Amino acid sequence: MDGAVRLGDVLGKVMTEQISPLQARFGDLADAWGEIVPGELYEHCEIVDARGGELKVCVDSSPYMYELQLCGSELLKELQHQCPQARLKRIKFVVG
Question: Could you tell me how far CA 25 lies from the centroid of its own chain?
Answer without folding.
Answer: 11
